[in-house]
Amino acid sequence: MDNISKEFPLVSKKGAPVPPPSRGPPTTSYHQKGLFINASTLRGYSCVCTATRDLWDKLFDEGYRADVTISTDNGGSIYAHASVLGMASQVMKGMLKQAKGRGQQRSISIHGVPHNAVRVFIRLLYSSCYEKEEMEDYVLHLLVLSHVFVVPALKQICIQQLEHGFLTSENVVDIFQLALLCDAPRLSLICHRMILKNFQEISITEGWKVMKKSHPALEKELLVSLADEENMRRERIRKSNERRIYFQLYEAMEALVHICRDGCQTIGPHDKDFQDNQAPCNYSACKGLEMIVRHFASCKLRVPGGCIHCKRMWQLLELHSRLCVDSEACRVPLCMNFKERTKKQSKKDEIRWRILVKNILKTKSIGGSPFFSSAFSMSS
Asked: Residue limits of the TAZ-type domain (predicted)?
């Protein structure tokens, strides 16, 4: 046996053939220049190799033993195989069952789209491949064909192509109408948003003028959507302005407590000694509030309604009292007085103040504030 093994190295000692040396899994290049499948170039591994796809392409190109003739616009003809068409599209299978012809040769018609677009479409049914230039030229026609003949994979490829870089101000109205007809909701939504965003530019295009004549109801719907979008934009601006005001009021309340409790720069409680080298104030509203406090202290028309600046100070003091948790320990002037005054206010004024306090606290989200946490629970 040893002599046999030396003479025949492919035979093991047990008499079984020795396997060839391992070189890893067999590799096949599936990349073919210019061809795409499922909207991406053919790279890596695939369950269908390049040779198989080339075979299907060759079967279509040469029309070997083709039994179906497809009539297109301008007298064009495309030869195909009923078995392939029927398996790729249930709609075509139904058409082929009703098709008439001599012997086993049958004929169907596909009109309304260019001959080359139909050819690209039929080729896709064979090998699922297309050329980039063909897709760019006939993507709209292929979308219609894939919808009419119910070919979901091709329809998805067309939608992806249209969504990524194909939409322009000139064609978006046409594609929007096509998306509605072909039941492509995502594409129609993207077109709809683009039309609303660039309405001034799109409304003067030829596509919009044609739609206005042929589909006035659709134009009306778009105009209603535009009005709704504008109202929503104004509402967002209004709420944003409100939130900014509530935020500023909260900062003013913080600065007021800071001034009256700790003192700031050159103003504060009588028992506070100021230092020339003290650190800058961290409260953004402090500087403006200091000016109002100084004016309030020296104004001769300090009664409510006598001076607009003093009136604003009275409102800030009342707002603070409604936010303050402990008026007895609070060092803000008149805090306790305003607490007592609120008990005598009308129900209408009380509701108005409660809503203001609630909005301020919600805008700032200050549930953990030592001064205002209880006020939040009371106003909820």
From this structure: 240-338
- Helix 132-148 and helix 172-181: axis angle, to 10°? 40
Half-sphere exposure of 131 (CA within 13 A, CB side): 11
Confidence of residue 185 (pLDDT cuts 50, 70, 90): very high
User: Around Cβ 126, how many Cβ atoms within 10 Å?
Assistant: 20
* CA dist., res. 20 & res. 120, Å (int): 45
Residue of 130, 150, 126, 149 whose CA lies nearest to 138: 130
Q: Which residue in 364, 169, 52 sits closest to 356, CA to CA?
A: 364
Enumerate residues 6+ apart whose C-beta is below 8 A from 358: 376, 379, 380
Say whether pLDDT at 241 is over 80. Answer: yes
- DSSP label at residue 78: E
pLDDT surpassing 70 at residue 365: no
The token duo for 155 is 């329809």
- Per DSSP, the residues of 16-35 read SBPPPPP--S-------TTE
Residues 6+ apart with CB under 8 A from 72: 78, 109, 110, 111, 113, 114, 115, 118
Place of tokens 């106003």: 379
Collect all residues with Cβ–Cβ distance below 8 Å to 108 and sequence separation of at least 6: 68, 69, 70, 71, 92, 95, 96, 99
Asked whether the beta carbons of 344 and 326 are under 8 A apart, the reply is no
Q: Is the dihedral of CA 84, 87, 92, 96 positive or negative?
A: positive
User: Which helix (H) or strand (E) covers residue 239, if one does?
Assistant: helix 216-261
pLDDT of 258-276, one tens digit each? 888 877 766 767 666 666 6
Q: Is the pLDDT of residue 141 over 90?
A: yes
> What is the residue whose two structure tokens read 């709809």?
192
For the entire predicted model, the pTM comes to 0.60
What gap in Å lies between CA 262 and CA 279, rounded to an integer?
13
Amino acid 348: pLDDT = 86
Nearest to 254 by CA among 306, 324, 199: 324
CB 205 within 8 A of CB 173: yes
Residue 83's nearest CA partner among 72, 67, 60 is 67
DSSP track, 132-152 = HHHHHHHHHHHHHHHHHTT-H
Sign, CA dihedral 219-220-225-230, equals positive
